[in-house]
Design brief:
mainly alpha
Amino acid sequence: MFEQNQLPNFEQEVLPHLDAAYNLARWLTRNEQDAQDVVQEAYLRAFRFFPGFRGGDARAWLMKIVRNTCYTWLHANRPLQDAAEFDENSFPPDSHALDPEEVVLQNDSDTLVRKALEMLPPNSREVLILRELEEMSYKEIADITGMPIGTVMSSLSRARDRLRQVLTTLMDRDPMPSSRRIVEVNV
């Protein structure tokens, strides 16, 4: 624990994680302006409660504040959006489905993966973003979400399966990525 005169500086501990905070907020709100508002509110909350921060992982502490601020904001501003759960019947399992990495390598990955992530329910999107994009540990994700580590692991597994199903469905709908179509048109 830190002595009173050794408390970490807010600027040194919390500000470096602004990009990660915005990234999580952007994926949860699915809107740049809303994400900016949420991050601003989260940083105000973090600043207000920083005197109570006694060290440890400032990034995980901040991300938990951002997550909670996002869900509070979403509940107040979009109460019925994202209410529908993922319907696994719409995306039946494909026994010969490629894993997400192979899918990404074979298609316009950035656009396709973003579209697929947008289609996932918020809880699936959240664990994928924290683990795969923010490279957080299972323990950090558990601290942020309030889930036990085992639940984080199973949620992440289900989220990866859902992402694979959505990517497969999107590829089946549009088997030829737009960049290949442009090349063929110009030939």
